[in-house]
Amino acid sequence: MLRKAALNTGIFFLYLVSLLPFWFLYGLADVIFLVLYYVVRYRRDVVKTNLANSFPDRSEAERHRIERCYYRYLGDLMVETIKMITVSEKALRERMKPTNPELVEHYFSRGRSIIAAAGHYCNWEMAALAFGLLTTEKRVIVYKPQTNEVFNDLFNRVRARFGAILVAMKQTLRTMIAFKNDLTFSVLVSDQTPNYHEINYFTNFLNQPTAVFLGIEKLAKMMDAVVLFYRIDRVKRGYYTYTLVPLIEQPKETTGHEITEAHVQYLEKLIQETPQYWLWSHRRWKYKPEDMNK
User: Fold this and answer.
1) pLDDT tens for residues 157-177?
2) Which residues are within 8 A (CB) of 226 and not within 5 positions of it... i.e. 6 or more apart?
3) Domain that holds residue 239
4) How many domains does one find in the chain?
């Protein structure tokens, strides 16, 4: 009971912080960068290892530059995510702009539902919030529940502020069957790490064998949905664009794992172009193919 009360107090504090103007929050982000990088040294070993394994051909100096840029951006990401609790629709539309929203109507007018793969790249939380403004048809965000129920509920309330429907990963199939007669636009984060018992496929991602979910591919084939990549680009501090990149238009005509490889390879290309915006402090490579035989 005391722990829950403390968490609720923490959430109220985050709400108050979210009311602060962006200019103040970015000053706070600069302080967060210094604390995370120099004082706490938050997961510095994880980041160094991930960068070394992902970019063995880049110099140590280049990897160090990416590391520092990542932590500087991580401070921005943290305060921007807090700001999403209370950000206005007007401010959100100014700061997260679609480049080709007409593509949604293009597919919907042809009776095609859409599934988009996204990554933990740039501000995916702000993009999830803006996703609710993209269309009036059903907008579904598939999420992996957090272990902390209080914060899980908070994030879901925030993501659903502008009309998106939040669906826990294990409820995806049931939800899609319920929506089978409706046009839907669903977004799934494609670079999460499956639990050990959920691993069915490894691919090569950032120079390493990587376990990936096959949910996007399975859903696309079941629904005959167009597969896109939900690309986010940072324009400048606090401002982004997002672009819907067509990957697969005829999923039922694809070979096994073709859809999975398409969205994994696109994300890899994006990370290689501007690596500091990916979530390098995530322990993405917990499992290796040899672990599956143990």
Assistant:
1) 999 999 999 999 999 989 998
2) 107, 112, 113, 114, 115, 220, 246, 248, 249, 251
3) 2-293
4) 1
